[in-house]
Amino acid sequence: MSELFDAVDALVASRSPLPPAEERKRLRTAHGLTLDEVAAALKVRRATVSGWESTKKSTEPRGPEREAYARLLKQLAELYPAPEEPAAPVPDTFTGASDPMEAGTLPKDRASEAAAMTATENPQTSAPAPVAAAPAAVTRPARTTRPTSTSRRPGAKKAAPAGTPAGGIDPRFENGPLAVVDVDDDGQVLAYCTGGLVLDVPAKSIPALVDWTLREAKLGQPKLSGPGKDADPLLVLTEAALERYGLPITLTDEERLAGRLPEGHKVIKQLARAEWKLTKRGFGPWARIYRPATGSERACVQLCIPSWNALDTRHWGEARQLPPAELARVLGVYASRVMTPRGSTAVTGLELMTALHPPTRASEPDADGKRHSEHNPGSLGRDPVDCAPCEAPDGHPLLKDLPRFHVRGPGEKLFEEAYDWARPMTDAECTLRHLVGIDVNMAFAAGANGLVVGLGAPTHVKNPVFDPKLPGSWLVDLSHVDLSRVKVGKEWVELDGSLLPSPFTPKGEHPEGPAWYATPTVAYAQELGYEVRPLEAWVRYDNGRYLDGWYQRLRDAYLATMADLGVHADMEPADFLAAMDGCKERDPELAIVVSAIKATVKGGLGKLRERPRGEGWRPGEPWRALSRPTWRPDIRAAVISRTRINLHRKIVKHAAFTGQYPVAILSDCVVYAANGESPLDFLPYRDGKPLPGGFKLGINPGLVKHEGTQSVLWGEEVRERFNAPELNLARYIKDGTVADVDNGE
Questions:
Q1: What Cα–Cα distance (Å) separates residue 311 from each residue in 235, 316, 581, 711?
Q2: What is the rounded distance in angstroms from the CA atom of residue 6 to the CA atom of residue 24?
Q3: 70, 338, 571, 586: most buried, per Cβ within 10 A?
Q4: Cα separation of 69 and 24, whole Å?
Q5: Per residue in 520-561, pLDDT tens?
Q6: Helical segments of 54-172, H only
Q7: What is the pLDDT of residues 30-77, one digit of tens each?
Q8: Is 220 left (phi over 0), alpha (psi -120 to 50) or beta?
Q9: pTM of the model
């Protein structure tokens, strides 16, 4: 009889009531649980739990998993009761604080920092398509619509996204900047737009899909700058959509290496028959399909194919695994706050510069009333300019006459890079208990803020008088600068120079003679109280604050998204540290947006000095990126120089006031020895006020957050294990994991 009772109990449990899919997700996220954690507890796959929460076509658990899942949801429902009135559908974008902030110091992606700042991708070859914000709400669909729940957090306020045009929604783009195209269980093709809107898609082929997008979908975004161009609509194709339209779900190894489908593929032939063209990049992860523009009208649609690795997991996390509506939300928030993605985050970062400063504008009417294209002041123009020889990376055509195996030293080559420095701990530091890492928010972006950079070609000058306001590269001997005695403000201070990195070299080594430096580095030597006498220079008399708008756009995007995660500007230090703890788990989708915004900064700057990507290139020959006006290694060097100098200035200020010196620095992370586990245990706050000019806790770019804390014993053990007394502990301070010695490349 007991066996029968057990069977009856199991039968009842197999039908345990479950709340709707959206409520399941609300309960999970309210408790800060990830999909992986729930999957591990229930002994199922992550994708299974995601399916149970899918609002489009949720699956139902069965057997013992259903009983356990129902038990979990019941307990969570007791902890987090549903609001009395369900939240109304709201758009996928949010506003947040955008207070002005301090210009600051440097970024990272610890293991991929060098790669990000030395981006290796080519931007799109078609004309840039600047964009502005997504609509705050979608009022009516372009075609038949199907209601869908939004994936926005319950109780969040309805607000227009950062950057929404003052005139309201552009009727041409009323359905937002992009759509995720998927196929439902009934075989219907659907386009998931921002704001929860879903459109029926009648197209039976890729050419028809492109045509429908341009004629009926009402997708796209207005231009970011007056002389610019509106953004082309972006379609993101899921695996189901790829199958429907005759495209492979994944690329072969050969196609992946080529970055595109072969020219003979049937879909490419379909496009050719319909008189659609592809850019030089071909049909790859970020394909652009167009017809030549007629007048001012553009006919171009961009495709993003996540399963072909269009969304790099280093920057977009698990975005490609999201259900269509949630992926539309993530990309929509990014598009509204930054711009519609034009490729990788690196490509988009570079395109954002051009979108904010288009190379040309319309002239005033001539005698016949006609307008002509003319140079847009403040932009980099239409034509590339040669860099100075010292700014040229190895293999550049300017260096083709050098001997084959010649290695350029600091007197021949400008080498402005982020910090990678560490030193052995002192006896006094070894008596302390903890190593605490602090990290500068959006440091490279802050370094770009207000920076004057060259707009045109350089001019060579012999024995120049140094001008800190003139951007350029200077050959000067800074070996006489003594960090044991420097000026801090107007006062001379005595420091222990042996515990400080040199501000003039990325490895912190003291310079031994004349070397090439960007303007901010030389200006800092003057600021420390020392005379500088350049031997020669390459300066740019045509200059301006080219990156200001770029910085402001990315700053506002970052602050708004962090505010949505519960971290606001001007929080008290303790409140800020508490808010930062676990903020990404509050909304993992918005955490993806934060990651992508940071990668846009670093990748965009890296592409200013993009290197060859194979293609049969040989040293001394030009490579494709050199044909862009945005190939500007001098601008990249100036931003990195200023960012490194900003960080050193804060370190010196901190040392002069507290007597504390950093143990390690990696890019924008600085590690100090302290008796407590929190940054507040060594940062000199008094009455809630930070040291003026020193480190300040906060979310604004240039301010710092807690990166991680490990024990001093951990640091000594790691260095001893690898027989590396100067191992850079900043690289591992976040979680303490050291699998092997990392050289930072």
A1: 13, 6, 27, 37
A2: 28
A3: 338
A4: 10
A5: 999 999 999 999 999 999 999 999 999 999 999 999 999 999
A6: 63-79, 113-116
A7: 787 888 788 888 888 777 888 888 766 567 887 778 888 888 888 888
A8: left
A9: 0.79
